[in-house]
Amino acid sequence: MQLIEIYKSLQGESSYAGLPCVFVRTAGCNLRCVWCDSEYTFKGGHRMALDEVMREVQFLSPNGGLVEITGGEPLLQESEVVALMERLLAAGYTVLIETSGERPLDKVPPQVVKIVDVKCPHSGEGGTFRAENLQHLTPRDEIKFVLASRKDYEFARDFIRDHDLSNRVASVILSPAFRKDASGSRDVSHCLLDPRELAEWMLADGLNVRLGLQIHKFIWEPSLKGV
Ligand code: SF4
Q: Are 174 and 156 in contact (CB under 8 A)?
């Protein structure tokens, strides 16, 4: 498979945030979100065989734990990524996959936690979520909306209600987008939407969802890669 990097850090998002995690980052993405902080994944990378990837993961985390497959868009390499997920599960890892939900999710093994980042209007990629994927969500999965505006929030709120997401998946997360050129201070001034404002909207609408902050952006220099 074509990969950008494999590294160990702390999980920065989702309800697993704060836990140690090995990240397997694939190359290539078919979307172009305006606030994307992973543009370095769009081209290049290097080929690695499944056995090599497994050896690297086992070196970084020999006693099991969390492994997240992310990108780019990992499901552009569906057959290789599914084979990797099956190997990781068999070796006792808890496996997460981060995907936009634009690619079909039907081949993802049910034991894998799918973290589906449904794109909102201001990402520039709104409407790319594949509706058929709703039937492949399981109670262990998580749905994330990255928000840059009130319009994004209203899109997410209506999507959550229309599809009864809070009762279908383990966690629904609303997360302010971070400026892709953020550097220097590690604080909320880099968020494109003020988390306080988002919290007030969530409470006013009575949504049973989680506010998520990308904690790695607050722990490390926001422009740092590989964390
Ligand atoms: S789907 Fe992810 S990697 Fe692809 S452009 Fe959007 S934020 Fe970047």
A: yes
Question: What is the value of pTM for the model shown?
Answer: 0.94
Distances (CA, A) of 18 to 10, 21, 219: 5, 9, 10
Atom of ligand 1 nearest to the CA of 41: 3
Residues with CB under 6 A from ligand 1: 29, 31-33, 36, 38, 41, 71-73, 100
Phi then psi dihedrals of residue 4, to 5 deg: -95, -45
Residue 32 CA, closest ligand 1 atom number: 5
Whose CA is closest to 198, among 188, 183, 185? Answer: 188
CA of 72 to the centre of ligand 1 (A): 6
Cα–Cα distance between 67 and 199 in angstroms, integer?
30
Q: What is the pLDDT of residues 127-182, one digit of tens each?
A: 999 999 999 999 999 999 999 999 999 999 999 999 999 999 999 999 999 887 77
d(CA 62, CA 75): 26
CA distance 212 to 21: 18
Token output for 107 = 């081949």
